[in-house]
Design goal:
Strand content: 15-25%
Keywords: Isomerase, RNA-binding
Organism: Solanum pennellii (Tomato)
Distance between the termini: 37 Å
Catalytic activity: a uridine in RNA = a pseudouridine in RNA
Radius of gyration: 23 Å
Helix content: 10-25%
Protein name: RNA pseudouridine synthase 2, chloroplastic isoform X1
Number of helices: 11
Pfam family, one: PseudoU_synth_2
Length: 474
């Protein structure tokens, strides 16, 4: 039986630009929750491409698929990238031993930091777990405090602990379900929600909400590494998990494993809001995986940036790999992708509006590949980090240093208050387009950004806005 909740179906994102231009001309905000102009436009223009006669699939089959997806997961993946493709990563660190003397030239360092620096790629969370488990000796004595300070000459013996199983339990979490039938589910994920359970984020996840929504049981699966100890590391952008792996399967942007997180086809960062598609059966998962592999999935994002790029539109074709200076983030690494160091990554962008005297911009992004933190890393490379992105340079101080010199003093107090309230990168997955796995019809779904994004955009527009047009850019 087909379910439809608050659906917004658009056959092209050109309509999205009309919302921006029309509303700004009329001093209205298309993202504001009470922006009747924008919502009216959506309601009068939208149409449905829902499957007319979807093949019925029983709940028991969906339950079986999702539960198998959980319990088969071998996971020690620290991101959405395949473990054997992550720069400097092992697929599983369990039992790895370190016997080493701290260099005499080394000053005092935290034990967890030093061990993490000596075992390439292991997460600090994993090291901390090993220390707390009594598996680390300093000068022959068990040391179970992660903050213990080591110094030159100390002898450290460490064994990395096994991954602890994670449990995903159904939770009655309100979900903004934009589209649902027997085969796929499209959810508008709020900011600050983690997609799937991970160390430090065991509850309140999108997966838990989906288990409850589909009336599925509690399931357990092995733990996994995360990209970093920061909260932004729990979910990474736009990479694929498939239930299948053929002997010859290889893809630079789609990650395939022998199992899958429950129905999750791709992920969004914890701080990113917007659209995410979930497969409800193996056929849908395999079909969507193939669409991601062929880059036929339409993914459109909008962001508010610190600064305006030198070119108002462009294509960023720069590989992405782990930042050698900061292990909790990724980085754009110019040059040819290097084996084990970086991977091919391409983003298209265009400035929709210049805001607040040219100190900020509303930027649209379209992804040709799906890498960990791709938009955030490419934005940083362009010199326009996303506002609110503390990991990639879009700090509050950075935002104010750009905003205040280009805005009248009368706005400075309001700007300081506005910026101080930003608690996540200003990035929203606006549009998702894909071919329905069973009917073959094209679905184009758009969801406007949430109130926090809308408020920032509205306040910056109130200072000054300059529209930018790009005829036939895409």
């Amino acid at each position: 039986m087909l379910k439809e909740k608050k659906n917004l179906y658009l056959n092209d994102t050109a309509l999205f630009h009309i919302f921006f231009f029309t509303c700004s001309e009329n001093n209205a905000n298309p993202f504001h929750p009470h922006g009747t102009l924008a919502m009216g436009a959506l309601n009068t223009t939208s149409f449905s491409l829902l499957p007319q006669n979807p093949k019925p699939i029983s709940l028991s089959r969906v339950s079986s698929f999702i539960c198998r997806a959980f319990t088969k997961f071998p996971g020690d993946s620290d991101s959405d990238d395949s473990p054997d493709e992550i720069p400097g990563r092992r697929s599983n660190y369990s039992g790895v031993k370190l016997e080493e003397t701290v260099d005499s030239k080394t000053g005092k360092l935290r034990l967890d930091s030093w061990v993490s620096s000596r075992i390439d790629g292991v997460s600090r969370a994993r090291v901390q777990s090993s220390i707390r488990s009594g598996l680390v000796f300093v000068n022959g004595r068990v040391t179970d405090k992660v903050s213990h300070m080591v110094k030159g000459g100390d002898k450290v013996d460490c064994t990395i602990a096994d991954l602890k199983p994670l449990r995903a339990e159904p939770e009655d979490i309100p979900l903004d379900i934009v589209y649902e039938d027997d085969h796929v589910l499209v959810v508008n994920k709020p900011a600050h929600m983690v997609v799937h359970p991970a160390p430090g984020n065991a509850t309140g996840t999108l997966v838990s909400g989906i288990l409850h929504h589909c009336s599925l049981p509690t399931v357990s699966f092995p733990g996994e590494e995360v990209l970093s100890d920061g909260e932004d590391a729990s979910d990474d952008e736009l990479n694929m998990f498939s239930a299948y792996r053929s002997p010859n399967y290889d893809d630079s942007s789609v990650m395939c494993e022998s199992s899958v997180r429950p129905g999750i086809v791709h992920r969004l960062d914890k701080g990113t809001s917007g659209l995410l598609v979930v497969a409800k059966n193996e056929h849908s998962l395999a079909d969507l995986a193939e669409q991601f592999k062929k880059h036929t999935i339409k993914r459109v994002y909008v962001s508010i940036t610190c600064g305006v790029p030198a070119s108002v539109a462009g294509r960023v074709d720069i590989p992405i790999g782990r930042d050698s200076n900061n292990r909790i983030r990724m980085a754009a690494i110019p040059g040819t992708p290097k084996s084990g160091k970086s991977r091919h990554a391409v983003s298209r962008y265009k400035v929709i509006e210049k805001l607040a005297g040219g100190s900020s911009a509303l930027v649209e992004w379209r992804l040709e590949t799906g890498r960990t933190h791709q938009i955030r890393a490419h934005a940083k490379h362009l010199g326009i980090p996303l506002m609110g992105d503390e990991v990639y340079g879009g700090t509050k101080n950075m935002a104010l240093s750009l905003l205040q010199p280009k805005t009248p003093p009368m706005f400075h107090g309001k700007l300081s208050q506005l910026v101080s309230q930003i608690d996540r990168p200003c990035l929203h997955a606006l549009t998702l387009g894909f071919r329905h796995p069973f009917t073959g019809e094209n679905l184009h779904i758009t969801r406007l950004p949430p109130p926090d994004f809308a408020e920032i955009l509205s306040e910056l527009r109130a200072i000054n806005t300059e529209k930018v047009t790009h005829p036939n850019y895409y």
